[in-house]
Design brief:
mainly alpha, Four Helix Bundle (Hemerythrin (Met), subunit A), 6 helices
Length: about 170
């Protein structure tokens, strides 16, 4: 069991590193956009950066924030995908920062409480909707799913940003 726990802790530390880097790159991409870019979508059926950031923030709320703070799920998933959704650059930066801060805080909690990795945090909650996880999922599986989903949406955001601005400028430090 100790080896499994060591592997799980190592995985959480890798996720922490990844989400911290993803936050940095996403905020840099948003900084290079103007408000029109944030609300623009490639086609009538496509999501805009505003939709994707709203969705990332909603996902962080409904999958993690409700667990951390024991608050009700107030997510309005349909609003996240409304056509023509407008966000200012400041709103986009705030929402992205909030989402990543929630994810990072939960991973830090799991890193300091590795016994919780195999817990089932949603077991006594109402059935999950719009989720790749179910009420029987473990905290570790939840975070693996978050890596997959958030990375997918960051790729979409970067693709749209490059469509609007051409090559983006990255600051490595």
């Amino acid at each position: 069991m100790c080896v499994l726990l060591d592997i799980s802790i190592s995985l959480v530390e890798s996720m922490l590193s990844k989400f911290k880097a993803d936050k940095k790159w996403l905020l840099q991409a948003i900084e290079q956009l103007d408000e029109e870019d944030i609300s623009w979508s490639p086609t009538n059926e496509s999501n805009s950066i505003a939709n994707l950031i709203s969705h990332i923030r909603g996902t962080a709320h409904s999958r993690i924030e409700i667990l951390l703070y024991k608050i009700p799920d107030t997510r309005d998933r349909d609003k996240e995908f409304e056509r023509g959704l407008k966000l200012s650059k400041e709103q986009a930066l705030i929402m992205a920062t909030e989402a990543f801060d929630i994810i990072i805080k939960y991973l830090e909690y799991l890193n300091s409480h590795p016994e919780m990795l195999l817990s089932q945090p949603f077991l006594d909650m109402p059935p999950l909707t719009y989720s790749a996880v179910n009420n029987q999922t473990t905290a570790l599986n939840l975070m693996i799913q978050m890596v997959r989903e958030i990375n997918y949406h960051i790729g979409q955001i970067n693709y749209i940003a490059k469509m609007r601005k051409g090559p983006l400028v990255w600051k490595y430090d």
